[in-house]
Structures are given as structure tokens and as C-alpha cells.
Amino acid sequence: QVQLQESGGGSVQSGGSLRLSCEASGFVIRHYPMAWFRQAPGKQREGLAYIGGDPYTEYRTSVKGRFTISKDNAENTLYLQMNSLKPEDTGTYYCARGGMGDIWMPSTYDLWGRGTQVTVSS
Prior knowledge:
The chain is an all-beta fold. The protein contains no helices and 11 strands. The relative contact order is 0.31.
């Protein structure tokens, strides 16, 4: 079965760290660009970090320098290391498998996980 499964979310205080994992099954992640998105309550889903070939990475300005996206091809798993977390980082985090197009548009991605909740308290 082709699917993505996120884990690693939780509740942390401002300034803390979390590492999110996204385990892929049914396909090989090194063949695809991948990304992490976040959806805060009442807001649209927004792209945070993207990893393409080589690997090539891109980050939304608000998380650049604090978040790191990576792939473990041997484990077929995508990661998001999040440091210096802020209350505005609170939301549901999704991993996604990409195709071609604008890397920050959800419509570019054809496979999504169910999400993992991150709550950052001040």
C-alpha cells in the first residue's frame, strides 16, 4: 500500500526541539521530491521545507535556520528537525510526496500523510 505516516509530534515549550518522521511505504522516497507542510487552526496549509534531488533544499523564510529537512534513503523515511520552536509553529504537520510545479503549492503533491500535531507553549 502506498502511504506516508508521520510521527514525532507533541507538546513542547518555546525554545524546545522536536524531530518529525515520515515513513514511506509502497514507493521509494529517493525517487521523489518531498516536503513538509503545516496547517494551523483556521489557516491554510503552508509549505515549510522541501527536498529535491542532489539533495536540494528550500525553506520558508519563517523556519529557515531553525528547521532542517532530510531523507534517510536506507530507512525510506523523511525527517524534519525543528529547533528553537515558537508558539506560532503550533499546528498539524504533514509530509507530502511531490510532482512537478510550485513547491509551496499543496496541489503539486499527490500523496499526503494524516499529520502529526505539534503544540508549542510560551
